[in-house]
Amino acid sequence: MKIGMVCPYSFDEPGGVQAHIIDVAQHFIDRGHDVRVIGPCSPETPVPSFVVKGGKSLPIPYNGSVARLSLGPAVDQKLAQFIEQGHFDVLHIHEPNSPSFSMRALKLAQGPIVATYHASSSGSMLLKAAAPMLRPLLEKVRGGIAVSEMARRWQVQQLGTDPVLIPNGVDTSMFVAARSKEAPASDGVVRVVFLGRIDEPRKGLQLLLEALHIDRSRNNRSDTEPELTVDVIGSGTPIDTPGVAYHGKVSDKEKARLLGKADIYVAPNTGGESFGIVLVEAMAAGCAVVASDIEAFKAVCNADSDSPAGLLFRSGDSDSLQQALRRAANDSALRNRLANAGRARAVEFDWDHVAASIMRVYETVADGSTVTLEKPRDKPLSVLKTARLQANSPSPLHGAQGECEEDKE
């Protein structure tokens, strides 16, 4: 099958949506499909050979974060060439609500189109204002996918579409292997890893630093308690704090190494997440996960099950975070239970399962025609209600009460 994919966010900066697109494209290529990807990307940024570099991007506030998007006539020109030369059986547009390559691709293209909604967008006034313009464009989408129940619910309530629920896939093999190579040392220190941009408040680093200060300032602190140290992975200006080491942006290999030798992965995010890829990576690496109780993380951690894969604390509450971290640090048996449940949970997000569900969507919408440019004289397509596809096996997130845009940094 010839598959075209459109990414709205720049490949110049690491992010969960970008990683998802690269991973699923590579998975399909490895299985004999012909896949091409286009998205914002500077000429000097290294990317896989199947990625068409769409040019530089600008930082634009979007969904509670700052996304690097591309706008302007050059975007339409690059997309038109990509679509015309691709002769795609399916065009898979990620985040069609995003005012960048994706929304423009949906405007320009016609034919077998699939869309994946990653962000919940519940607080986006821009998207709510743009909803009347978006609805006619979304009628072109023949197969809709949401990566979380929260993202699906927003689409249903705000835009009237009803996508099928298929979670993000994660290549867990590197992280599973890292644990055997980098087992935590038994030296009276509990190692914690945080991943996220330092200067992005919703990632929660400041909350974590406050929790560490509270922990070190306690009057009831025991000399026998293990010390907490933190490795911070992510770009931004380091904040000098005792026991905290900053590594900046790192490769996936180095990230896996740091997770492999950690006892705890902490996710103090305060919102704006619709999944939680790095939580799954940490689970695969054998970390005990301590996470805020936002809806996305509750879902990934299977919080309402008999064997939750994470210890949750109140979002935005540094005291609650400190108590959760100290509880996990002091109780090695609890950490082992969380790590074992996390390993089992991570298997459910393996790409073999997730990609098979995505391919079923492609096969459902493909009709033997190819994706073409919509001619100006063409009348709008009639309403094509998004197919409710019944997967052979239930999605691991189906029915979960969970909030989680995954940013890998």
Automatic annotation (TrEMBL):
Record's keyword annotation contains Cytoplasm: no
UniProt KW keywords: Glycosyltransferase, Transferase
Gene3D superfamilies: Glycogen Phosphorylase B
GO biological process: carbohydrate derivative biosynthetic process; liposaccharide metabolic process
Keyword Ribonucleoprotein applies: no
Disordered: annotated span: 388-409
Molecular function GO labels: glycosyltransferase activity
Ranges in coiled-coil conformation: none
Organism superkingdom: Bacteria
Glycosyltransferase subfamily 4-like N-terminal domain ranges (all copies): 14-173
InterPro entries: Glyco_trans_4-like_N, Glycosyltransferase_grp1
Pfam families: Glyco_trans_1_4, Glyco_transf_4
Protein name: Glycosyltransferase subfamily 4-like N-terminal domain-containing protein
